[in-house]
Amino acid sequence: MAGINILQQVSRARNGIGAFVHPCRRIVITYCNFGGSSQGTRDFLRTRLKSFAEQYPHIHFNVLEKPGFHPVLRAEYTDGLDKQICVRKWDVNVVENKLKLLVNSSGRKLSKPKQLVKSLNKSVRGIWSPFHVDPSQRHKV
Amino acid sequence: MYQWSSKALGRKSFCLLSRRLISLSSVQGKVQSPKIKTEHRLSYEKANNTRVGDSAIQRPQSATDFGNYKRESFVLNLTEEDALKIPSILALHARLNLSPNFEKRTLVRALTSRMEDNQYADNQQMAIFGSNILSYYVTEYLLSTYPRLPIAILKAATEAYIGDFSLHDVAKNQWGIEADTSTNLEKYLLKEPKLFKFGKLRFDQLVTDVEDGITRFNNASKTSLAASTAFANSARAIVAGVYAADGEASAKEFIDLHILSRKVDISSMFEFEEPGKLITRLLRTKNMELPTIRLISETGRQSSSPTFIVGCFSGDSLLGEGQGSSLKEARIRSCVNALKAFYLYRPLDPKRPSESTFKPMFVDEGESFY
Amino acid sequence: MSGFTLRFVGRSQIKHNTSGIQVINKRSVVFAKGPRVKGALRDPEDILTVNGIRYGSSEDNLKPLKTFLQTKLKGKYELPDKLLLQIITHKSFAHGTQPYNARLSYFGKELIQLSAAKYALSQPTDNEFAINNLNFDSLGSFTQSFMKSEKLLKEYAVLNNLDTVFFRRLALPSGREDADYKPRSIWSTLTASLVGAIATQHGKKAAEEFIQQEIFAGTLDQVIKSKSTPSKSD
């Protein structure tokens, strides 16, 4: 319409309002088949990986042998971020806990929120409309 | 002075050079540039009206016998057993919480764009259907929620929900679909099974990042797509897949959950030129009293930081309030707020025509020109 | 077509005659009685009349559409008078000052587009690339795109005489004013807004039934067969 211009927008994600899509997309576990620092990781792969992966069907688990390196857990998230944790010398329980930490993360860096409420909305009151006010209560001048 | 002259000289030499280039090209013959059609300004409209060339379709005797149409290029069909071997497809299926009726190979097809030298079924026509169903449900939602939006804003808001850039964000950053950008050599070196490429979004790329800092603009073929369009088409195709697997009600729910739940701030899509004039015209067409701006409260008029609150009134009724550090600013804000209060009118408890508890919708009269 | 208005800058009230046209100058707007002048605004009374029919929700104006809805659909989808008048008013009528059908037809077109796609999928198929027995291969083809085209919608409106009373601007693009010239961008809004109005008042299901039975089952084949001899109005 004449006199009204458009400021084009692109919709922004609000994960969890509506559908919740789990942010963790893929986990790559690298280990060495010989080194002592990979002992716990190897134990995890041998005994617990299958049951662990079955709990998270939305995550693609990838196991890579990387001889001569310390074991590393790397998680990739849907918005393109990733996180890595080196699990050298850690035993099987710690490896599992670190994996849980990666699974439950959103991929973003940890930060302390400055406000109690974080919102995309400008104001909770919204746009004022004269038609929702009872006529007897309307402003008279 | 010296700088000036050297600049002028440089420009002159450039002109000479370009003229020479033009004369050369005219000798060699005209270079054919691809024709760019600009029929549809908005990408969702473009996706709705995509035409598959008639040479690509085998048409049956009767043109309306849609069941017997067949795409020429579809030769190979990935089996469901093969599709079940692709981990990223299984993960995506689980991530989107798709029903067991939604076959894994349909998901593979949704991630396959129309490409040159591709014999597998592609997502082009699924994307057309997905775009149609998306644009209907988004329009229906917007029209019943904001019945007075001007049509241009309505279309822009629809674009904000289901345009290429939004659906690109949905497919890539929300659903975690990956594009297949690695070369055959890289795949060979990684010892990646051949099936795994079907788990990624494949398309003829218009632009490729060759290495850091270098971008290559490929020669545009008929099938090459911008990354945003390719990702958006995969999202549209997945919506079409939900329709095919579970019917329209599920598709609608899927759209509600994944697309309409996203944030679009419609009130900030308006930019009014001369809001005072617009509200005057609006009130005149609605046969209401013309607007008067009245000061409601003020503080610190003589100070360095005064604040005024004014109201835009039609007769006795307050249409909008505006606040500002000058009377003019406050007046303009009050007119803008009054206009927004009109255009962003929301019925209490709006019902959409596709709902079972539907009741007749509020229909606006349309924007008068003056 | 007896009057038109010219905008002049001037404050005084002047009456004078120039080349047989009586000119009354009121404030800054001039009403002139006489033959039409291209580019000039017409008399406010004059612009509300099309082919001798005065705009308004009178019984005569709404009768054609009302009887159509009663006979064709067994009176199932009756619409309020206000909406009927809005359906038969195009945006171009009276400079858009009256309630017009743009939003209804926009909504109707979206629904027709979806119905056309669903219709194509619903046909029985034995294509091996069909998903859950739905064959997507016809989408985007010429005929399937034709099902949602303005041309088909216009043909439906003309065949069913929905345009008996139709308020739109008379001076059509390219200056033609003959009775056969019916631009599809304007005439298609009749059908589309009728569908849109049914959807807003009776729900999506009812509107889809209307599209299926009326447009796709009735008109589509008729129009496709006669496509070799298209009407000259396009």
Automatic annotation (TrEMBL), chain A:
GO molecular function: structural constituent of ribosome
GO CC entries: mitochondrial large ribosomal subunit
Signal sequence annotation: none
Ranges in a coiled coil: none
Gene3D superfamilies: Glutaredoxin
Pfam families: L51_S25_CI-B8
Subcellular location: Mitochondrion
GO biological process, one term: mitochondrial translation
InterPro entries: Ribosomal_mL43 (IPR039927), Ribosomal_mL43/mS25/NADH_DH (IPR007741), Thioredoxin-like_sf (IPR036249)
Stretches assigned to the Ribosomal protein/NADH dehydrogenase domain: 33-106
Keywords: Mitochondrion, Ribonucleoprotein, Ribosomal protein
Record flagged with keyword Transcription regulation: no
Protein family: Belongs to the mitochondrion-specific ribosomal protein mL43 family.
Protein name in the entry: Large ribosomal subunit protein mL43
Species of origin: Ogataea philodendri
UniProtKB/TrEMBL annotation, chain B:
Location within or outside the cell: Mitochondrion
Pfam families recorded: DSRM_MRPL44 (PF22892)
Family matches, as SMART domains: DSRM, RIBOc
Domain of life: Eukaryota
All copies of domain DRBM, residue ranges: 274-344
Any one GO CC term of the record: mitochondrion
Identification of the protein by name: Large ribosomal subunit protein mL44
The organism's taxonomic lineage, starting at the top: Eukaryota, Fungi, Dikarya, Ascomycota, Saccharomycotina
UniProtKB/TrEMBL annotation, chain C:
Pfam families the record matches: Ribonucleas_3_3 (PF14622)
Gene Ontology molecular-function annotations: ribonuclease III activity; structural constituent of ribosome
Biological processes per GO annotation: mitochondrial translation; RNA processing
Domain RNase III: 81-217
GO CC term, one of those recorded: mitochondrial large ribosomal subunit
PANTHER family tied to this protein: 54S RIBOSOMAL PROTEIN L15, MITOCHONDRIAL, LARGE RIBOSOMAL SUBUNIT PROTEIN ML57
Record-given protein name: RNase III domain-containing protein
Phylogenetic classification of the source organism: Eukaryota, Fungi, Dikarya, Ascomycota, Saccharomycotina
